[in-house]
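REQUEST ID: PR-0412
SUBMITTED BY: lab tech R.K.
PRIORITY: routine
TASK: structure prediction, single protein chain
INPUT:
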Amino acid sequence: MVLDSNNHSVFSLHYHLVLVVKYRKKVFNDEKSNYAKDIFERIGSNYNISLVEWHHDKDHVHILFKAHPNTELSKFINAYKSASSRLIKRDFPEIKQQLWKEMFWSKSYCLITTGGVSIETIKKYIQSQGQNNK
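STATUS: complete
OUTPUT:
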């Protein structure tokens, strides 16, 4: 396992983010997805976020990224959704026909932590601590 580090800690923090287009409109293609991905990478660098994997469907994107412990994820996600919504609608005017209001993304999102092992493995590890000292 490769760990990231800063001055006082080592860490490996990966997240799976799913963002859905407002009203589940099927507006994504490769060009728009790559555009949204580029925005993610630019804004992410300001929040100590690195893109690991990106894939889109017609109405949503799946993003795997890693972050630092001090990253404010909700602030980053809101900043990304706001900026990308504005820029996508500006640079792809045909989207305005399907999404006539300001928002490009649904208000909600799915953010899941990921790890190298299952929750069950971690539970068993924690439960086993101190048993050799008895």
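NOTES: The beta strands are 4-5, 10-11, 13-21, 49-56, 60-67, 105-114.
REVIEWED BY: pending
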